[in-house]
Amino acid sequence: MKPFGYVRVASVDEAVRAADGRPGARFLGGGTNLVDLMKLGVETPRLLIDVTRLPLDRIEELPGGGLRIGAMVRNSDLAAAVPVRDRYPVLSQALLAGASGQLRNTATTGGNLLQRTRCLYFQDASKPCNKRAPGSGCPAREGAHRDLAVLGHSEHCVATQPSDMAVALAALDATVHLHGPDGERSVPATDFHRLPGEQPEQDTVIRPGELITAVELPPASPGARSRYRKARDRASFAFALVSVGAVLEVRDGVVRRAALAFGGLAHRPWRARAAEEVLRGAPATEETFQRAADAELGAARPLRDNGFKVPLARNLAVGVLSDLSDLSDPSDRPDPAARG
Hints:
Layout: E1 5-8, H1 12-19, E2 25-28, H2 34-40, E3 47-50, E4 59-61, E5 67-70, H3 75-80, H4 82-87, H5 89-96, H6 101-106, H7 109-114, H8 120-123, H9 164-171, E6 175-180, E7 183-188, H10 189-192, E8 211-217, E9 225-231, E10 242-251, E11 254-263, E12 270-271, H11 273-279, H12 286-297, H13 309-324
Parallel strand pairs: 1-3, 2-3
Antiparallel strand pairs: 4-5, 5-8, 6-7, 6-8, 9-10, 10-11, 11-12
């Protein structure tokens, strides 16, 4: 691990000032991803700005029924919060599906959004990687890519975004609040993470020196139900091969509202707009759900060893949507409170 500076700050303004004009500065919250990458020599910050004491650790009710989640709220606290469990179960389930209890006790809302890919080539500083060293190449395309992207990838990068929480936030139409040298701004959660394009080193749209201060959830629709489901190689402490976060409202057998997001398929949580278009106003049947999934996954471009993700995503989406519309066998439903 290379030498670095360290400073602890007591306010958001102080944190932003500390980072302003310092390209090598990084904010340190829970550190569950950043510190690991520093040990591997992948991340080499010149300055760590400790933001753990900032007053950003509250979950606040908003006028109209929404929630404001501070960037320093721990994942375990967020998953257990009654308003989240009751009104946004897809978010609680996604958080409980991630990592281990010990890591959830440390990881923060802001840090979860900023965690980086688990691509083997990115994490190995001895290998070329366009995300880590732009222009060096993407050996994953012809190498080990079983866990990597089938949607939205480019010749420069086929990495996937690993956050479970971010998939749920995309399905919930959440908003990410930022504070930086140019003041405050807000970004839809669906636009916060980037596709790789020709600049795979840029994971998000966050600007230099900007700090995530909060995530805002819109009011939950009284008639909507939500769920998160994750397929992985082992029952715990494993990243998603494919995951699905869905919000569905069905009235009189017809889909009135649908929001669907996939994890494990792309460089960012993949909001399934084509599928949603098929779902809205259509009968809430398994045939409709299959057509919706096919409409979205028809754009998939699997590589040599990850084509299995396409039917897996299709089956997972159809199962979740059927479950939310009461079409599935109740005995087949997973316990929504099951720990990951």
